[in-house]
């Protein structure tokens, strides 16, 4: 199954990435991706775009050539309190907020600290998706995180890039996360974490893990544009209401899908 939704991409605004919005739109059209999120790194990263970059995302069109664009961020979890590097009313202007651990902002410490920081980010109400929680550099109490994510309606990401170009050794953790998510009713999403447009919508390795644990496709946010948009609307993102109308008749991948 070719999924039509990707929640995690980076552009040249994050200077260690290599594609523009235009590049992503062209590849999205080629691959049949109907909705993707532009989620450059939060401003506390050394080579991330300025804070104003995220404030001005409102200039991006909602749709280009039939492809929907979500205005987002991959923020940095900064400390044990779960604070991120984007805040206040500015958060309400974004369509989607991802957040995760990144070494230059929050160096690894110990399992208890990582777990508390991640759960506090989940509880904050500011984060929709936790990125690459299976990173072996940041061990966590997987069951505790999955329970908290289920309770607060936050999605956990199975990050395809972690198996191909970064965060080597993530497979076992991600399998355990997917299994715990299945058990506790936690929402999962696959993210390409593309730093070049060619990998947009690339979920092969992530999907293998989803399939291995028989995680129900009906709870996977990639299953349709409407599924993701409904999730974001339920989390209070009023900004996505105009996109929901465009995608409310799309096909939804259900439990019986052949993935």
From TrEMBL:
| Cleavable signal peptide | none
The UniProt keywords, alphabetically, are: Hydrolase, Metal-binding, Zinc
InterPro entries in the cross-refs: Phosphatase_YcdX_put, PHP_dom, PHP_phosphatase, Pol/His_phosphatase_N, Pol/histidinol_Pase-like
Q: How is the cofactor bound?
A: Binds 3 Zn(2+) ions per subunit.
Fetch the HAMAP family from UniProt.
YcdX_phosphat
> Which is a Pfam family this sequence falls into?
PHP
What's the protein here called?
Answer: Phosphatase
- Positions of Zn(2+) 2 binding: 16, 41, 195
Q: Which family does it belong to?
A: Belongs to the PHP family.
Q: Where does Zn(2+) 1 bind?
A: 8, 10, 74, 193
Cofactor(s) recorded in Swiss-Prot or TrEMBL: Zn(2+)
Binding-site positions, Zn(2+) 3: 74, 102, 132
Domain Polymerase/histidinol phosphatase N-terminal spans what residues?
Answer: 5-79
**Which lineage is the organism of this entry classified under, starting from the top rank?**
Bacteria, Pseudomonadati, Pseudomonadota, Gammaproteobacteria, Alteromonadales
């Amino acid at each position: 199954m070719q999924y039509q939704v990707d929640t995690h991409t980076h552009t040249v605004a994050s200077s260690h990435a290599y594609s523009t919005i235009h590049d992503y739109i062209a590849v999205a059209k080629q691959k049949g991706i109907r909705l993707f999120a532009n989620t450059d790194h939060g401003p506390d990263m050394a080579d991330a775009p300025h804070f104003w970059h995220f404030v001005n995302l409102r200039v991006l069109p909602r749709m280009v050539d039939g492809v929907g664009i979500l205005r987002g961020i991959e923020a940095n979890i900064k400390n044990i309190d779960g604070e991120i590097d984007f805040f206040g009313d500015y958060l309400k202007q974004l369509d989607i907020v991802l957040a995760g651990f990144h070494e230059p902002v929050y160096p690894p410490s110990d399992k208890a600290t990582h777990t508390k920081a991640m759960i506090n980010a989940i509880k904050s109400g500011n984060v929709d998706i936790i990125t690459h929680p299976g990173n072996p550099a940041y061990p966590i109490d997987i069951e505790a995180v999955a329970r908290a994510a289920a309770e607060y309606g936050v999605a956990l990401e199975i990050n395809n890039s972690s198996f191909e170009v970064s965060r080597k050794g993530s497979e076992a953790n991600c399998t355990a996360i997917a299994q715990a998510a299945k058990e506790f009713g936690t929402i999962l999403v696959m993210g390409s974490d593309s730093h070049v447009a060619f990998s947009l919508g690339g979920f092969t390795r992530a999907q293998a893990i989803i399939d291995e644990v028989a995680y129900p496709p009906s709870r996977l946010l990639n299953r349709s544009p409407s599924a993701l948009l409904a999730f974001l609307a339920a989390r209070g993102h009023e900004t996505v209401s105009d996109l929901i109308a465009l995608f409310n008749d799309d096909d939804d991948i259900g439990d019986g899908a052949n993935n």
